[in-house]
Amino acid sequence: MFGISPSKTGTAKLHDVIRILKELGDDLKSNTLGGEKRRESLEKLKVYGRDPSYADPIYTKEGINTLVNQAFDENTPIAASREALSCIANSLLLKTQTRKYLAETKSWDKLIERLKSPEVHDEFLICRILFVETYLEKETISFEDVAKQHGLANIINDKMIQHESRFSDQGSSTITNLMADNALTETAKLIFNTTHFWPALIPALTPSIGSLFKILTLSNERPPLRQPVAQVLNALLNLDAKSPEWSTAAFPPATPTSVLIKLTNLLSSCLDAYPEAELNTLASPLIALLSKMRSSNIPLADTYLRQQLLPSVDDRTQVLGRSKSLASRLLALTTSPAAETLCDAIGNLIFELSDSDAEKFVANVGFGYASGFLVRKGIPLPSAGAGAGANAGGVPVNPITGQRLDAEPVDNLPEMTEEEKEREAERLFVLFERLKRTGVVDVVNPVEAAIRGRVEELPDDEE
Q1: How many domains does the chain have?
Q2: β-pairing verdict for 391-392 and 395-396
Q3: Which residues form a coiled coil (predicted)?
Q4: 268-313 confidence digits (pLDDT tens)
Q5: Residue 60 belongs to some domain of the structure
Q6: CA distances (Å), 122 to each of 194, 197, 309, 330, 345, in order?
Q7: Boundaries of domain holding 100
Q8: CA–CA separation, 94 vs 88, rounded Å?
Q9: Which residues are CB-contacts of 354 (< 8 A; sequence separation ≥ 6)?
Q10: What is the pLDDT of residues 378-417, one digit of tens each?
């Protein structure tokens, strides 16, 4: 029966876990349980293991050994084997010591061989297990050696080709295979971690670049950065942007800006779909990928991104950051307290698009936006007049706000009369005197100081 929900808790749960593990261990020697009974027992153990309280025997060396042997025993049906793999995957996430126990079983060959299965359910489970194992300390195991010995990179590259074909066949349809998407998510996570912790494996995974970019351009996810798209973006971040595979996939010869257009459209959709706190996590890798593409030494990438992400003449009809353009919305995000990581990523990209030159940066975004970024990065601020000569289509702009001077609002208030100025001075005098009497702050009344200064400055012949 599927969908088991064990009702035992506390010590009763612990005793049941001990019983099931002993039963499964004995079965490996006697083969008396039968396929369906194995599956039921492993599923029950999987459900118990979701909450580690009173389930400690699962996370012991003996418990992991039993699960590994059940997963790969020749008498274990595929459904029962997957339940055992699910138990292992959950254990690795919940109890870090089990990662070492799994490595000590030396079952890499069986795990990676299983990954060759065309079934996406197997891909999902094995890639999740391998993903967590990449966090093992290098003193425990060299994941790089394991991957090279068992041809892991080639298998991953083949998996990515299969996912690319699925997306191509799917076309513009919004109907997706949930398990296939979950498998792709786990495989993309494995690519990211492998290339992050074991950079020597980057060249072996370079063939996946084309498939990853193709999946991105073919995706029609709603909301825009739901899985697997977010992890596919991440998977590209550590791969070689100087490789021929990157150049061909990121800038297709027939339509060299198509990927850039897709990514900037995706970014614009994200700004509409998510609140700032979520954007901080979801959109930062997208900005990082755009920055990586800009650094690919492809001139059109720099040109296109400047057109899309730097303020235009139209943006400058108001204070920068207030229009609805992508460039303005990104600038506005750089001041968001809820999106610090994203703020930094956007600032870095715009600074790079300004040739990493502080004066050009100020000219592009205005001193108001630029100053905070430059101070955080320890970059000397340009002189006070930097950006003052900036212009938008030949029209001077305000160096602080970036707005065109001819578009700034005109002060239409009439000039104050002398009598009105005196009344305003008296009002300010009274307010400052009240503030001084509170004792909260020590202030000098500016009106009093102004009067005293005027008296002191009178020439001798007017005394």
Answers
A1: 3
A2: antiparallel
A3: none
A4: 999 999 998 899 999 999 999 999 999 888 889 999 999 999 999 8
A5: yes
A6: 19, 24, 42, 41, 36
A7: 1-105
A8: 10
A9: 310, 360, 361, 363, 364
A10: 998 887 555 544 555 667 878 788 887 766 776 666 777 8
